[in-house]
Amino acid sequence: MDGILNTIASAIWFILPAYFANAAPVVLGGGPPLDMGKKFSDGRRIFGDGKTTRGFVGGLIVGTIVGLLQGIAEVPLGEHLLLGFLLALGALLGDLVSSFIKRRLDIERGGAAPGLDQLSFVVVALMLASPVKVITWREIAAILIVTPPIHLATNFVGYKLGLKSRPY
Ligand code: CTP
Ligand code: MG
Q: What is the pLDDT of residues 97-109, one digit of tens each?
């Protein structure tokens, strides 16, 4: 039993920069959209108005800072800093992939895509971090299992605080 809790704790500690990078744009985002209003060949937006340059850069900086703080709390600092950057970049790119797919499926900005909304960011974050740090399959499984409920819970709190217009 204690093995499971340890695995979940170390998995969350590892993926933390991705969580922060995913959440930061809700507060820091706004302004011009990343796709600059451009449409894809299907006539729909590439990413949509929910993906902004400010949100992307803000998320990247916040996630990297979380990695830096982890590096101060636990050696080696350089590895945590690099992981923070890669996990944040992966989280933001994964979130863009999700929006790209949603627009192709004709789901409007902010519309729900169960599974995609909760997991695409951690999947790409794990992919980008994998050359730098090998984590166990148990930790990967833990991340995939605990992320959807954590994502839904934080979004609900963001909605209640008036930061988000939708509770999911
Ligand atoms: N956000 C941003 N820039 C990003 C990602 C997010 O500005 N790169 C901000 C937007 O204000 C967005 C909010 O964070 O509305 C919540 O993010 P998310 O749920 O990912 O976007 P949605 O509005 O749901 O859009 P989509 O349907 O494309 O996922
Ligand atoms: Mg959303």
A: 999 999 999 999 9
